Automatic annotation (TrEMBL):
Pfam families named in the record: Mo-co_dimer (PF03404)
CC cofactor: Mo-molybdopterin
Organism from which the protein derives: Podilymbus podiceps (Pied-billed grebe)
Gene3D superfamilies: 2.60.40.650
Designated name of the protein: SUOX oxidase
GO cellular component assignments: mitochondrion
Length: 76
C-alpha cells in the first residue's frame, strides 16, 4: 500500500496564530514496510516540508503499526 497519513493537530478549520505552528499526525503503510518519510504542505501543495518522525524505529520487517510525526513551521 502507498503510505497513508492523517493530521491530528491542529483540527480542520482551526484558527492558528501567526508565528511557529506545530503540525502533528500519524502515518502508516502496508506489508510490514516502515514509514521512512512524511512530507507536509501548508500551502495547498505548492511547497513541501519534511516532518520529523517521532518515537522508536521498528526492527526491519516489523513495521506493522503507525508512526507518529511532527512538523514545526512558520505561518504568516
Amino acid at each position: 500500500l502507498p503510505v497513508q497519513s492523517a493530521i491530528t493537530h491542529p483540527r480542520p478549520g482551526a484558527a492558528v496564530p501567526a508565528g511557529e505552528l506545530t503540525v502533528k499526525g500519524y502515518a502508516w503503510s502496508g506489508g510490514g514496510r516502515e514509514v521512512v518519510r512524511v512530507d507536509v504542505s501548508l500551502d495547498g501543495g505548492r511547497t513541501w516540508r519534511v516532518a520529523r518522525l517521532a518515537g522508536e524505529r521498528p526492527a526491519l520487517g516489523r513495521a506493522w503499526a503507525w508512526a507518529l510525526w511532527e512538523l514545526q513551521a512558520p505561518v504568516a
